[in-house]
């Protein structure tokens, strides 16, 4: 198993051909006031599974923590893979997760840690800063 990428963005659109389009990729926000609510936040990942890993289910979860390290969410599920056709060595799985009305309670780094088969595999962080007040 290999994680090709993880990213945070405004939206993930899956095309008719299955290809994801990541719209508005970001990892740093400067806001006027804290706390605030981010109207939409999407987590996107692409995981490559080998022939040996195909033909079974794999538990997937994203452990989300706030700047203090407190867990604020743990969405997850299972990815069931068919056998890989002859001639291919791996299969890619795109994982788009959308969060509407994401609450930000403090400045600092929010971490989104992807676990595959119970093991931490990749992470992305969102840094929140409060803008300085100009008099």
Short structural summary:
This protein is mainly beta and 135 residues long.
List key phrases describing it:
135 residues, Immunoglobulin-like, six-stranded mixed sheet, three-stranded antiparallel sheet, 11 strands, 0% helix, elongated
Protein architecture, described:
The chain has 135 residues and is mainly beta. The chain has a single domain (2-130), classed as Macroglobulin (MG2) domain (Immunoglobulin-like), CATH 2.60.40.1930. The chain has strands at residues 2-9, 11-14, 20-23, 28-31, 36-50, 57-65, 71-73, 76-80, 90-104, 108-116, 119-130. β6 (57-65) and β7 (71-73) form a beta hairpin.
Outline the secondary-structure elements:
Layout: E1 2-9, E2 11-14, E3 20-23, E4 28-31, E5 36-50, E6 57-65, E7 71-73, E8 76-80, E9 90-104, E10 108-116, E11 119-130
In terms of per-residue confidence, which ranges show pLDDT below 50 for 5 or more consecutive residues? none
Which outline best applies? elongated
Total domains: 1
Q: What is the percentage of strand-forming residues? A: over 45%
CATH architecture: Sandwich
Separation of the first and last Cα atoms: 53 Å
- What is the CATH domain class? Mainly Beta
**Proportion of helical residues:** under 10%
Q: What's the pLDDT, averaged over the residues?
A: 94
Structural class: mainly beta
CATH superfamily: Macroglobulin (MG2) domain
Total helices: the number is 0
What integer value in Å does the Rg equal? 17 Å
